[in-house]
Design goal:
With 194 residues, the chain is α+β, with helices and mostly antiparallel strands. It has six helices and four strands. It is elongated, with a radius of gyration of 22 Å. Bound molecules: heme C.
C-alpha cells in the first residue's frame, strides 16, 4: 500500500511538473538573425535621415522630421516586413514610446548591465509570448546615446533655445533630456509572429 501511495505521489508530481513547466517555443537562429538585421536597418535609416536633415536644414527642422519619420518608418517596416517595430524608453519624449510589461523587463535588464559596465555591442533580449493561440517572438536591442543625439536629448544647456521651444510645444510631457554620451537611451522593440 505504501509503495502504491508513493508511486501515486510521484506520478502526480511528474504530471504537475509537466503541466506547469510548459516548454518555451524555441527561436531559430534564422529568426534571430532576421530580427537583428531588421533592428539594425531600422536604427540606421533613422539616424541617416536625422543627421542629413540636421546638416542641411538645422536641428530645429530635424525635430519634426525625426518625430514624423520615426512614426512613418515604424509603420512602413511593419507593413513591409510583417513585424511590429518601435522604440521604447522609460524616459520617453513621445508617450507612445513607453514600454509595456515585457519591454520594461528587458529595459531593466539592460539598465542593470549598463550599471555594472557589462552592456556590450551584442547585448539583446529575446522572448516568446502566446496571445489567442498565436506565438510571437519579441526582440529588444539597446539604443545608446551618440554625439548627434545630444542636440535634442542632452542637458538643457546643450539644447538650443529654439529647439527646446519646438520640443516643448510638441511634447508637453517630455522626459527625454539630460542624457550624456553613451547613456542607455532606450531600445528598439520588435514583435514578429512565428
Ligand atoms: C533633431 C532632434 C533630435 C535628435 C538629434 C535626436 N532625436 Fe531622438 N527624438 C526626437 C524627437 C522629436 C522624438 C520623439 C519622436 C516621436 O514623436 O516619435 C525622439 C524620440 C527618440 C526615441 C524614442 C523614445 C522617446 O523618447 O520617445 C529614441 C530611442 C531616440 N529619440 C533616440 C535618439 C538617438 C539615439 C539619437 C541620436 C542618434 C536621437 N534620438 C537624436 C528628437 C531628436
Amino acid at each position: 500500500m505504501k509503495t502504491f501511495i508513493s508511486s501515486l505521489l510521484i506520478f502526480i508530481l511528474i504530471i504537475s511538473i509537466g503541466c506547469t513547466d510548459k516548454p518555451k517555443t524555441k527561436i531559430s537562429e534564422d529568426i534571430k538573425k532576421g530580427l537583428r538585421k531588421d533592428a539594425k536597418e531600422f536604427m540606421e535609416s533613422l539616424k541617416t535621415i536625422l543627421v542629413k536633415e540636421m546638416q542641411t536644414n538645422g536641428v530645429v527642422a530635424a525635430v519634426s522630421v525625426c518625430s514624423d519619420t520615426a512614426q512613418v518608418l515604424t509603420n512602413n517596416y511593419g507593413v513591409k516586413k510583417g513585424i511590429y517595430i518601435k522604440r521604447v524608453s522609460f524616459k520617453n519624449r513621445n508617450e507612445n514610446d513607453a514600454p509595456n510589461k515585457i519591454e520594461a523587463e528587458a529595459l531593466k535588464t539592460f539598465e542593470e548591465l549598463k550599471r555594472k559596465g557589462e552592456l556590450k555591442e551584442t547585448t539583446e533580449y529575446f522572448t516568446t509570448i502566446e496571445e489567442d493561440g498565436i506565438t510571437s517572438v519579441i526582440y529588444l536591442k539597446p539604443i545608446l546615446v551618440q554625439a548627434p543625439c545630444l542636440s535634442c536629448h542632452g542637458s538643457l544647456d546643450q539644447i538650443g533655445l529654439e529647439v527646446k521651444d519646438v520640443i516643448r510645444k510638441k511634447y508637453r510631457n517630455d522626459k527625454a533630456t539630460g542624457y550624456q554620451l553613451d547613456d542607455l537611451r532606450g531600445a528598439v522593440s520588435i514583435q514578429k509572429t512565428l
